[in-house]
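Message: A physicist's question: would you kindly supply an amino acid chain plus fold tokens?
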Amino acid sequence: MKIILPFLLVCWTLSIVAQEKIPTFQAIEIDGPAEVELVAASECHVAILRANDLVTWETNGNSLVLIAQYKENQPVAHIRISIAALRRLSLTGNVSLTGQGVFANRLMDITIEGTSTAQMEIDTEMLKVEVGQRSSLTLSGKADKAHLKAKNNASLDAGYLLVHTGTVSCDANSTATYLPVEGQTTKQISNQQIILEEKKKDVWWLSK
């Protein structure tokens, strides 16, 4: 019995953190607080690395819906999500998301609210981003066409995102900046919209 019980405890612990393969999804909705590792992979998996009792999740069609609860005197949940093709990402509450790898899809929609933060590298033809409510987003990679919006004290940093055409807009309480390839001075905008367009063979960058 002294040998069996520790063995069962180890197996139970491993079962909590083991990655679970689930039906393919292209959309992710997360309501925090949570620390999230988002991994570009060949298959879809979900692994609860910490605070398994605070997390509930389900797949609904092609969407993964995940809710993490707050519990006093307990660390927030730590989650690893693997996805093959990201179409839509939505963060609310207090989510800290770090992307690993390049997330590629023809269309991509990213919405961040609450006090969430995210860092990602993407590769897409059409990108739509909205960041609000004191959240922040850092993007790199490339998008043929992008519409980026920051509102309600949000911060948008696309310093290494290559964009051919699109728009960047923000309200008076938010910040977004951009830098043309030929320019030497970073330009910051507030309460206005900037149109990004390809001029001849020149390329425009967005930058903080």
Helices lie at 4-17. The first strand starts at residue 20 and ends at 21.
